[in-house]
Amino acid sequence: MIKTTKNGLLIFATFIWAIATYMLLSRAYSWANLFNIPQLIISLLVGTSIGIFKIYFIFRKVAIQNWNRISNLKDSELNLWQFQSTRSKLLIVFMMTFGIALRKSAIIPIKVLMPIYLGIGLAMLYVVVFNLKRIINALVG
């Protein structure tokens, strides 16, 4: 196992969130050219609404729980694989697999997937910013 400090683990977790955020938002952006202007505006509004909903009801709580979980780990237990709980890692694998399967199968049209990817990406961006603010405060303060 790769040993780390609490700050190192928090930075690594934030880095993983940032990579996933980039992947979702860049995928959503790559689909923007499939829309005419009115469709794009509606998709952006729907995606932003999904993001706000997910932040308020899910990701805000997840960010706090993950931060507190890492902060409460004993220094002797710290390694990079603890950037998420085991349950969360399994959920992430399931969500990624399901998302890829949906995208590849064309069961749901890209024009429907775009605002979903955008919304989830925006909610994940919230976690990245939340963590970065706390990391900066911990390092400066």
The low-pLDDT segments are none
- Helix share bin: over 70%
Radius of gyration: 17 Å
Describe the biggest sheet?
Answer: none
Total domain modules: 1
Strand content: under 5%
What order do the helices and strands follow?
HHHH
Shape: elongated
- Alpha plus pi helix count: 4
For the residues shown, what is the average pLDDT? 92
Give the number of DSSP strands: 0
**Quaternary structure of the protein:** single chain
Q: State the distance separating the first and last CA atoms.
A: 30 Å
Structural class, from secondary structure content? Answer: mainly alpha
Structural commentary:
The chain is mostly helical and 141 residues long. The chain has one domain (6-140). Helix content is 79%, strand content 0%. It contains four helices and no strands. Helix 1 (6-30) packs antiparallel against helix 4 and helix 2 (37-71) packs parallel to helix 4 (110-140). It is elongated, with a radius of gyration of 17 Å. 24% of the residues are buried. The mean pLDDT is 92.
List keywords for this structure.
141 residues, mainly alpha, 0% strand, 79% helix, 4 helices
Ordered list of secondary-structure elements with their pairings:
Layout: H1 6-30, H2 37-71, H3 86-105, H4 110-140
Helix pairs in contact: 1-4, 2-4
Write a concise synopsis of the structure shown:
The chain has 4 helices and no strands.
